[in-house]
Amino acid sequence: MYELVEIDRNDLELLRIIKNSYRRYFFDKRKINKARQILWYDDKYTQSSDQTIYKIIVNGKVCGVFGVYERSENRLELFNLIVVRKNRIKGVFSKVIRDFCSDHSSKGKICFVNVLKLNPAIRWYMFVGFIVSSQNDNFLELEYKND
Ligand SMILES: CC(C)(COP(=O)(O)OP(=O)(O)OC[C@H]1O[C@@H](n2cnc3c(N)ncnc32)[C@H](O)[C@@H]1OP(=O)(O)O)[C@@H](O)C(=O)NCCC(=O)NCCS
To answer: What is the CATH number of the domain that holds 36?
Structure first.
């Protein structure tokens, strides 16, 4: 029903636009211009083997993206979970993240995410199956729990 495909150079403009539109919810709130997005891709993303950004494709359209950092052998940090509003299909993002996290939990990996406390998506994470594992003044760390 959906496909996960790693982003490539052709996805940078989409990524830039959706990241900018939700930047108030991210740690780095600077607006990203085209040059900076390309620099990030060439100098950082493609040079590191520990992070992957996936696009979620349904019926040939990208309806969201999310990133995964391998923080250690058994800890995966999800980041930049962003819906593409115009292609959103209700319920798809939750299914993708549940499938991804359940699959990795069954292999002994912990999937977690750091979320700013002011982000309304915290309710969504709870709905998907995350629980609070730690917190500080500004953000919560949430961990996926298999039911
Ligand atoms: C978080 C996000 C990826 C969820 O995508 P989505 O397409 O809305 O997800 P789904 O359709 O699978 O799930 C929606 C359901 O989740 C539940 N939900 C609870 N709180 C929610 C919230 N704050 N936002 C969205 N859904 C929420 C609801 O049941 C909702 O269904 P409803 O519309 O019938 O009430 C999207 O809202 C987003 O891109 N947010 C902005 C970027 C962001 O803050 N990302 C997290 C960074 S850490």
So the answer is: 3.40.630.30
